[in-house]
Design a protein that fits this description.
Bound molecules: nicotinamide-adenine-dinucleotide
CATH class of the largest domain: Alpha Beta
Radius of gyration: 22 Å
Order of helices and strands: EHEHEHEHEHEHEHEHEHEHEEEHHHEEH
Largest sheet: 8 strands, mixed
Helix content: 25-40%
Low-confidence stretches: none
Strand order of the largest sheet: 3-2-1-4-5-6-14-15
Length: 363
């Protein structure tokens, strides 16, 4: 199959959908890989590195779309690309269709096959192409919390781990899923005292077994949150209620009881945020203050570390790209239930229930 790797054109997006190492694997399987010129620069990969791996460098996105049977992106196609997508062409990327009716209707019109990273499932019903970005965001949250706890950044002026003779910081992580666990692990690694809350008792049992000694998994409740925020130097919001907006777990009232200069990191901001006072921020201006409490609410945290994020993402996507390229897409989805779950739009029809329901479209 001819596979096209496009340059990301969405603002602040420096990732790329395949590394040179991925190109080498695809070409060894007999596929031809076209890479749009400079697609990898934001992630540290030159045109020459792709050529050395067996790719052909192509000057424009239009040519990649015109020649490829499957194109890959990281973010959803932008309006300038809609006209370039061909009927029957496979587009494999993050789409998040339910959040954008215009994109859904545009993809329907193209007649292409839209396979969305975010709805592919694996054998244990988890989302293998979302997990790596949750891991990045969780780990980064602890780093950002440490940075913004410094006085010059507007924080209280504390070191998360303390030093001998000085106690460590109290870090409260709300949500013990992928994001929360990685945030807690990093904060523990820095030496902080970490409270990790979740509503699932089974999850808490597991966390109690696997987390380090300076992590205290606890049942989440409004009362526990109200108590723990008062002692916290850092609060990290990492909850997810599937198919719903994030619940507001830290209220404006609670901010008044917190230490001045404490840092709130709301990773759930892409689902509306789990603190009442959260609003989305960008990497250019990541923080703002409410009642003396610093808020960090960047919606695309992995975008700040494209070298790590690109490799983490492509480690996960490559086996799926190889499976999709191996034979006719109809045969692929017949054999692989996980990839079938990723097909959101195909040949002018919505093929994913959630997307159809979001916009009242035929399914
Ligand atoms: P996940 O499903 O693995 O974990 C969510 C956890 O929250 C679950 O264990 C659930 O039991 C728990 N939870 C639900 N309600 C709770 C409550 N009231 N109190 C405590 N825990 C509660 O999800 P995830 O992959 O960890 O993602 C978490 C959030 O991070 C999502 O909103 C996701 O979209 C977001 N995210 C943001 C970025 C970013 O750049 N900002 C990047 C990746 C993920």
């Amino acid at each position: 199959m001819i596979v096209g790797i496009l340059k990301e054109i969405k603002t602040e997006e420096n990732r790329v959908s395949m590394t040179p190492a991925g190109v080498e694997v695809m070409t060894a399987k007999g596929h031809q890989v076209l890479v749009e010129s400079l697609a990898g620069v934001g992630s540290g990969f030159s045109n020459e590195a792709y050529q050395a791996a067996g790719a052909e460098i192509v000057a424009t996105a239009a040519e990649v779309y015109a020649r490829s049977e499957m194109v890959m992106h990281v973010k959803e196609p932008q309006p300038s690309e809609y006209e370039l997508i061909r009927p029957g062409q496979i587009v494999f990327t993050y789409f998040h269709f339910a959040a954008c009716e215009e994109l859904t209707r545009a993809m329907l019109k193209t007649g292409a096959i839209a396979i969305a990273y975010e709805t592919i499932v694996d054998a244990d019903n988890t989302l293998p192409l979302l997990t790596p970005m949750s891991e990045v965001a969780g780990r980064m949250a602890a780093q950002q919390a440490a940075k913004y706890s410094e006085r010059a950044q507007g924080g209280r002026g504390i070191l998360l781990g303390g030093v001998p003779g000085v106690p460590p910081a109290n870090v409260l992580v709300i949500g013990g899923g992928v994001v929360g666990t990685h945030a807690a692990q990093m904060a523990c690694g820095l030496g902080a005292k970490v409270y990790l809350l979740d509503t699932s008792l089974n999850r808490l049992r597991h966390l109690s077994e696997v987390m380090p000694k300076n992590c205290f998994p606890m049942m989440s409740s409004p009362a526990t949150i109200r108590d723990l925020v008062q002692q916290a130097d850092v609060v990290i919001g990492a909850v997810l209620v599937h198919g719903a907006k994030a619940p507001k777990l830290v209220t404006r009232e609670m901010l008044k009881t917190m230490k001045k200069g404490a840092v709130l990191v709301d990773i759930a901001i892409d689902q509306g945020g789990c603190f009442e006072t959260s609003r989305p921020t960008t990497h250019t201006t990541p923080t703002y203050e409410v009642d003396g409490i610093l808020h960090y609410c960047v919606a695309n945290m992995p975008g700040a570390v494209p070298l790590t994020s690109t490799v983490a993402l492509t480690n996960a996507t490559l086996p799926y790209a190889a499976a999709i390229a191996a034979e006719d897409w109809r045969e692929v989805v017949r054999k692989h239930a996980g990839i079938r779950a990723g097909v959101n739009v195909a040949c002018g029809k919505v093929t994913y229930q959630g997307v159809a329901e979001a916009f009242g479209l035929e399914y």
